[in-house]
Write a structure and sequence with these properties.
480 residues, Rossmann fold, Four Helix Bundle (Hemerythrin (Met), subunit A), four-stranded parallel β-sheet, four-stranded antiparallel β-sheet, 17 helices
């Protein structure tokens, strides 16, 4: 598998530090507001990588943190006259619920910043001892010039950063680029050797990664907006404190944009996950995101989402119809050497090319529909197994039919008397089997250009709130 490493600006062969084991860290949310589509893009992307690594047979330890102490959290706590803990707990629970609704797997480890303060203080002490940090009036700052590789991730020199970066100005810092490791805060602070205060944002991830994974890890991922200053600062403080390389592969996903602008809370142009889920299901959102390469920006618009919705419905309906056709027969097959599996892996191994991987899935669905239409059970069983396996790898959730057998039968009972083309034996079939038989008769009528029967069936189904859709391969149906 090859991945694009932001640090080296190149696509590299992935080689874990330990054979068959992967340590992966993803920067989690700062829990002070509702999660939005930008968060969905980020965590669906790395959920997909997590699933794919496990599919390849790696033993993955996935850590995604929760930032529950931060200026934004404290600002909201002051506004609402409550505590930071109340704010962070409320929005963490909303975030966790949103991830569950999006079928994003929980990470193996989900540490909270406030539960890792001891590790942060330990790292800061080491940095001061090594001359990489200094205390000033209760604050502690990292001495940027003490780390010769500073700027290599973001491809900026210290001189360029001084000229153009947005950095805090302070009379108590030695240098304007020095960043905070500990901030004095008498109101919301925690005890430390320097002051009652709280950690800087960057030290939190260095500490949680070191405590729960290792000093040297395989993958560190997050949104492209974190490259500078967050990830740049993580590298500096971690490598100075630990005396070794911090991360082998730095991975970053692109932004979600609206009218070509990055979706963000500061611009007030964001769409919450909960609002989005009122109009689109989790599978539609996932297919919308994965249709685009993870490093590229995604432009939010309803047209693209409607296209994703239709695409997912085609996959869902085809698999469900195939499962009905196959019945309870054993569908477990060795499909690892099938051409579709090989093509899927080739796409995913090429820097997670999910667009091509989805194309393989749609091609498999076409073959599955043809197999069902031709009543070829062996072929249908193979392509159904492939389609289910590959959709699972990408994190899609094949839902059960919305209409139960009983509910479908009740609806069919209302129109069955008018279907004089059915035999008595046909009418003994129940639910989905009867539905498939009616569609089979209609398809034969269409082949024979008997439009009277074809239109009659469509109109009868319309009267019981079932829509027929004719595709190149077959006819699918869905509830209105």
């Amino acid at each position: 598998m090859k991945l694009y490493n932001t640090y080296t600006n190149s696509i590299e062969e992935f080689k874990p530090i330990e054979d068959n084991k992967v340590k992966m860290y993803v920067c989690g949310p700062t829990v002070y507001d509702y999660p939005h589509l930008g968060h969905a893009r980020c965590y669906i992307t790395w959920d997909m990588l997590y699933r794919y690594l496990k599919y390849l047979g790696y033993e993955v330890t996935y850590c995604r943190n929760i930032t529950d102490v931060d200026d934004k959290i404290l600002k909201k706590a002051r506004e609402e006259k409550t505590t930071a803990e109340v704010i962070s707990r409320r929005y963490y629970e909303i975030f966790a619920d949103s991830m569950k609704k999006l079928n994003v797997l929980k990470p193996d480890i989900e540490p909270f910043a406030t539960k890792t303060l001891g590790e942060m203080i330990s790292i800061i002490k080491d940095l001061i001892k090594n001359g990489n940090a200094y205390e000033s009036q209760g604050d502690v700052y990292f001495r940027v010039k003490s780390f010769k590789d500073y700027g290599k991730l973001s491809k900026q020199s210290i001189e360029d950063l001084k000229a153009g970066a947005r950095v805090e100005t302070s009379t108590i810092k030695e240098d304007e680029l020095d960043f905070a490791l500990w901030k004095k805060d008498e109101e919301f602070g925690y005890s430390s050797p320097w002051s009652k205060g709280r950690p800087g944002w960057h030290i939190e991830c260095s500490a949680m990664s070191r405590k729960h994974l290792a000093k040297h890890i395989d993958i560190h991922a997050g949104g492209a907006d974190l490259i500078f200053p967050h990830h740049e600062n993580e590298i500096a403080q971690s490598e100075c404190a630990n005396g070794c390389k911090f991360v082998n592969y730095w991975l970053h996903n692109g932004f979600v944009t609206i009218n070509k602008e990055k979706m963000s809370k500061s611009l007030k142009n964001f769409i919450t996950i909960n609002d989005l889920l009122e109009n689109y299901d989790a599978n539609t959102i996932r297919i919308f995101i994965l249709t685009n390469h993870y490093r590229m920006p995604v432009e939010f618009n309803d047209i693209a989402l409607e296209g994703a919705k239709s695409g997912w419905k085609r996959i869902q309906t085809s698999i469900n119809q195939a499962l009905r056709y196959l019945g309870n027969e054993n569908n477990s097959l060795d499909i690892n050497n099938e051409e579709e599996i090989k093509l899927f892996k080739e796409a995913m191994d090429n820097d997670l090319n999910t667009s091509k991987a989805l194309a393989v899935i749609f091609d498999t669905i076409t073959k599955l529909n043809k197999s069902v239409c031709e009543k070829n059970k062996d072929s249908a069983r193979k392509y159904c197994s492939i389609a289910i396996t590959l959709t699972n790898v990408l994190g899609f959730n094949i839902e059960k039919e919305k209409l139960s057998q009983e509910e479908l039968q009740k609806r069919l009972d209302k129109i069955i008397a008018e279907m004089d083309f059915l035999t008595d034996e046909d009418k003994k079939l129940n639910g989905y089997l009867l539905m498939d038989k009616i569609i089979e008769y209609r398809n034969n009528a269409r082949k024979e250009k008997n439009w009277a029967i074809a239109d009659k069936v469509r109109n009868l189904f319309d009267s019981i709130s079932i829509v027929l859709k004719d595709t190149k391969e077959n006819t699918i149906w869905e509830e209105k």
